[in-house]
Amino acid sequence: MTQQDALINYCLRLGDTSLILGQRMAEWTSNGPTLEEDIALTNISLDLFGQARTFLTYAGEVEGKGRTEDDFAYHRNEREFYNTLLSERPNGHFGDTIARNFLHAAFLYHLYSALTKSKDDKIAALASKSLKEVTYHLRHSSEWIVRLGDGTVESHQKIQDSINDLWMFTGDLFVMNEVDELLIKEGIAANLNEIKKLWDNTVNEVLQRATLKRPIDGFMQKGRLEGRHAECLGHLLAEMQFLPRAYPDATW
């Protein structure tokens, strides 16, 4: 594997993750529990779509074959996507979405913080811009985790169940392969073993404030680096990609 191939794959991972999570968040538009939350969730979606566009565009530039962010987003099948398994999980109820967003935002916050020091100037710049947005995503979801966990008996149990149900997908966030090894050696990518330690600290601190219990690490779902996903991603892509596939000249 060449450094060029590794960098393309790395950018696709970052772009795909933001794209899929952004699509999930877009499903909340006009469905938020309050007007303020409806706007907040929609804005988070827009932030994620912006991140997706920049990383997918950079993947096309590195590849040099004329593919655009539209080509990557709308003309690949599910086995060609490298998004985290956590990002594709269905929204469920409000607590499910908040739990997913919290666990994911904590990951992206520390990942982008590390990538601001990347020796690839473009990656560093994109990470720096994305970090500002993800910082808000983490604060928003953390405050809701505490509010629900330290709220009523019902809200506490529901958010605890949400955390428990999603926990098996968190191990996938930190899986690495030869792409990571090559780019870490070149000072481009972040070492996810180090990110895991920071993520643990953040998650533990917020769960403690929320009077919630951290689930015990058990079986963890993995496979995104090989393009293996849950059935729900196929359904999401079928809806998201319908228009561009029906009208190939359409643009984002």
In short:
With 252 residues, the protein is mostly helical. It has helices spanning 3-26, 35-63, 69-74, 94-115, 121-149, 153-166, 178-185, 192-209, 231-240, 242-246. The chain has a single domain (3-213, 223-246), classed as Up-down Bundle (Ferritin), CATH 1.20.1260.10.
What does this structure look like?
This protein is 65% helix and 0% strand. With 252 residues, it is an all-alpha fold. Helix 4 packs across helix 6 (153-166). It is globular and about 55 Å long.
SSE layout:
Layout: H1 3-26, H2 35-63, H3 69-74, H4 94-115, H5 121-149, H6 153-166, H7 178-185, H8 192-209, H9 231-240, H10 242-246
Helix pairs in contact: 1-2, 1-7, 2-5, 4-5, 4-6, 4-8
Q: Report the average pLDDT across residues.
A: 95
Question: In terms of structural class, how would the helical and strand content be classed?
Answer: mainly alpha
Uncertain regions: pLDDT < 50 for 5+ in a row? none
Distance between the termini: 31 Å
Domains, number: 1
CATH fold naming = Ferritin
Q: Roughly what percent helix?
A: 55-70%
Question: Please, how many helices?
Answer: 10
- Helix/strand order: HHHHHHHHHH
Shape: globular
CATH homologous superfamily designation:
Ferritin, core subunit, four-helix bundle
